[in-house]
Amino acid sequence: MRLAIAGLGRAGWSIHAAALRGRKDFAITDVVDLEQNRLAEARGEFSCRTHRSWKQFLGQHGAEMVVVATRSHDHARMSIDALKAGLHVLVEKPMATRWRDVDRVITAARENRRLLTVHQNMRLYPDFVHIQQVVRSGVLGRIFMIKRGEYGFSRRNDWQVFRKYGGGMLNNWAVHLVDQVLQVMDSPAKDVFGHIQHVLNPGDADDHDAITIRGESGQVAVVEVTSVCSQPLPSWVLMGTKGTLVGDEKRFRLRYYRKALPRVAPVDSTAVAGRRYGFGEQIPWEEETVDAAVPVKKDFYDHLYDSMRKGKPLFVSPESVRQTMWVLHQARRGTLFRE
Q1: In terms of domains, do 29 and 8 share one?
Q2: What is the Cα gyration radius of the chain?
Q3: What is the pLDDT of residues 233-254, one digit of tens each?
Q4: pLDDT tens across 158-200, in order?
Q5: Where in the sequence is the domain holding 108, given as residue range(s)?
Q6: Which helix (H) or strand (E) holds 142?
Q7: What is the mean pLDDT of residues 76-90?
Q8: Which of 45, 46, 64, 95 is most buried, by the most CB atoms less than 10 A from its CB?
Q9: pTM, entire model
C-alpha cells in the first residue's frame, strides 16, 4: 500500500514513520514538510519523493493514502484537500479543531468515495483493552461512574502552547481519553460540562481540563487531563453496583462481591437503633490486583491494511470520532476557550 506522510514532526516521524519502518505491506512514497533537513532524512531512509509544498504534493504524488500529521489547526483543511484530490486519509487527532469542520471532513470523504480514519490509537492500548474486558465480564456489576485521568507536571514551549495552532491539553490528550471513555460508556453522550483552564504553561492554550459527561442511560464519566499536577493519581476508576476498579496504565486493583446481597428493608423511623451508622452488614469482599496489560495482536496499521485491502470495517470510523469531537466542542462552551 502506497502511503504519504504530511508533517515529519513528532507524530509524523516518531509515530507513523516509525510504525511503518520495516513493514512489507506498506511503502512510504512521498513526504511533505517545510524543513529541508527532515525531507533529506526521509529521502535517505525511504527513497521517497519529497515536497515542501502541500499543493505541489497533491499534484505530483504517487500515493494512495496520506497521513495528515501536521499542526492540529491544519488537520481539517488538509484532509478535505486530500480527499478531493482522490486520496484516502488517515488524519492525526484531533480530526478538526472546530466543530463545524468535523462534518465537512466526513462529507468530503463520502462525496469523493474515499476512506477516512482518525489516529485514535489509544483504543489499542493494553490497559484500555483490559478495561473493556472487565466491563464486559460483569464482575463490577452495572457501571455507573467512570473516571479517566492523565496527570503530570511538565512545561513546554513549542507550538502546542498556542491556541492559534490548535494546541493545548484538550486537543492533545483529552481527545484520546474522551474517545476511550465513550467506547466504554453504555450509551451515547447526552450532556457535557467542561472547565478548560490555562494555569501555568507558557502561551495561551489550556493545560488543565475537567470534563463531565452524562450518557443517555444516566451513566456519568469524568475526564481530567493536566500538565500541572505534581502527585500521581489513578488513571482509571470504575464504580459498579458490585465493586470498584482503581489503577493506572500498568496495574489494576479490584474489590467486589460475587453473590447477590440480601434485600434490606428501609426502616422509616426518626430514631436510629443504637445511634449507629448503618446496620452492621458484613459484605464478603474479594480483592485482586492484576496487570493492566493484555496481548494486542494487531496495531493500527494492521487494521488499516485490512480495511484497505480486505474490505473490513474501519477500526476507527469517522462517525465514531464525531461523538468525541462533539464532547470536546461542548466542553469548550461556557469557558474562556471559545471556538
Answers
A1: yes
A2: 23
A3: 999 999 999 999 999 989 999 9
A4: 999 999 999 999 999 999 999 999 999 999 999 999 999 999 9
A5: 2-119+299-314
A6: none
A7: 98
A8: 95
A9: 0.93
Q: How far apart are CA 135 and CA 245, in angstroms?
A: 10
- pLDDT exceeds cutoff 80 at 335: no
pLDDT of residue 274 exceeding 90: no
Domain count for the chain: 2
Which residue type does 208 have? H
Residue 169 and residue 191: Cα distance in Å, rounded? 21
pLDDT digits (tens, 9 = 90+) for 23-51: 999 999 999 999 999 999 999 999 999 99
Spatial distance between the Cα atoms of 327 and 339, rounded to a whole number of angstroms? 13
CA nearest to 30, candidates 109, 87, 108, 91: 87
Instruction: Kindly give the pairing relationship between strand 286-291 and strand 116-118.
Output: unpaired
Residue 225 burial by CB count (10 A; 0-12/13-18/19+): exposed, middle or buried? buried
Q: Where are the alpha helices (DSSP H) in 112-246?
A: 126-137, 169, 175-184
Q: Is 29 helix (H, G, I), strand (E, B) or coil?
A: strand
Q: Is there a single domain that holds both residue 304 and residue 250?
A: no
Domain membership flag for residue 216: yes
Of 37, 27, 36, nearest to 5 (Cα)? 27
Q: How does pLDDT run across 194-220, given as a tens digit for each residue?
A: 999 999 999 999 999 999 999 999 999
Query: What CATH number is given to the structural domain containing 57?
Result: 3.40.50.720
Query: Do residues 106 and 151 both lie within one domain?
Result: no
Bridge partners (DSSP) of residue 194 are 211
Instruction: Return the C-alpha cell found at 138.
Output: 460483569
Extended beta strands in 111-207, E state: 116-118, 143-150, 189-197
Give the HSE-up count for residue 190: Cα atoms under 13 Å, Cβ half-sphere: 9
> Mean pLDDT throughout 80-93?
98
